[in-house]
Amino acid sequence: ASSIHCCIVSLVFTGKSSSAFPPSFPPILDLSVFLGYITPKIVLSLQAAFKPPQAIRGGIPICFPQFSSSGNLEQHGFARNKFWTVDTNPPPLPTSSSVKSYVDLILKPTQDDLKNWPHSYEFRLRVGLVLGGNLLLTSRIRNTNSDGKPFSFTIAFHTYVSLSDISEVRVEGLETWDYLDNLKEGQRFTEQGDALTFESEIDRVYVGTPTKIAIIDHEKKRTLVMRKDGLPDAVVWNPWNKKAKSIPDFGDDDYKRTLCVGAANVEKPITLKPGEEWTGRLELSLVASSYCSGQ
Ligand code: TA6
Question: Could you say which protein family the record assigns here (predicted)?
């Protein structure tokens, strides 16, 4: 199987042709075509660096085994900076699945990796195209430790949503939910507004959030709907103008045209015993008109 950088979704979202994939890559023409369709809603910074371990700025970086900068691991963990392998003989879809085509990416620790995070695991990321034109990311993480040791992790799909103008954007679904505010030493607050709108830097983790979040881009009359399962939290981040200037791979004006909304499991780490597996799902769909909350 070939190696493809974990931020495969970023690579494809940059509009790079599917020739970026090795010939053995499963037939994902329609997946690339679909991603070309959804690409207008996912952004990649023009300053993005494609050189691990520098994380790609944009796409849907997979933050694992931590969504933080604690301990000896790099910020938001190593998974987004690693080369994953393509499983060219992936398990079949369940008969009930609505996925039309998919590719499975696998991440397992190398001997070197085990020095930094002494746990064996298999992370299987299935990138699927759903009938009706949605993108479905299914993550399965299994503890494969042979020493009987459990491990705990946090995870986030740190999605960079492309916008026409951040000042014309509403996020619905997080109202009345609690959040931890990273701009106020992680203190806990309750969202009061009837939707999120944006006038300044925001860096929050909404905790125990609903399964559906809508990012409404009024100007383009488009809405990105995120449906999540097994990912009870949501990260919302925009550095705004001042902080954007201090981020080398974040263009000075990028803050106007992107918002990070990441389905996550951050507040309460997940613990797996050897042999146990965790599954999380994120489905992205485009609704070509302003969102009606009943959808
Ligand atoms: O979204 C939360 C956050 O930790 C922000 O504080 C900011 O650092 C952002 O992630 C981007 O992190 P990155 O490591 O991708 O530059």
Answer: Belongs to the glucose-6-phosphate 1-epimerase family.
Q: Model-level pTM?
A: 0.86
Determine the structural domain holding residue 248 and report its residue range: 3-288
**Domain count along the chain:** 1
56 Cα to the center of ligand 1, angstroms: 12
The CATH number covering residue 143 comes to 2.70.98.10
Please list, in sequence order, all residues whose beta carbon lies within 8 angstroms of the beta carbon of residue 266, skipping any fewer than 6 positions away. Answer: 67, 68, 154, 155, 156, 205, 207, 233, 235
Q: What is the mean pLDDT of each run of 10 residues along the chain (295 residues)?
A: 37 33 35 46 61 74 92 90 88 87 92 94 92 88 97 95 92 96 97 93 96 90 92 97 90 90 97 98 84 49
* ipTM exceeding the 0.95 mark: yes
DSSP letter at 153? E
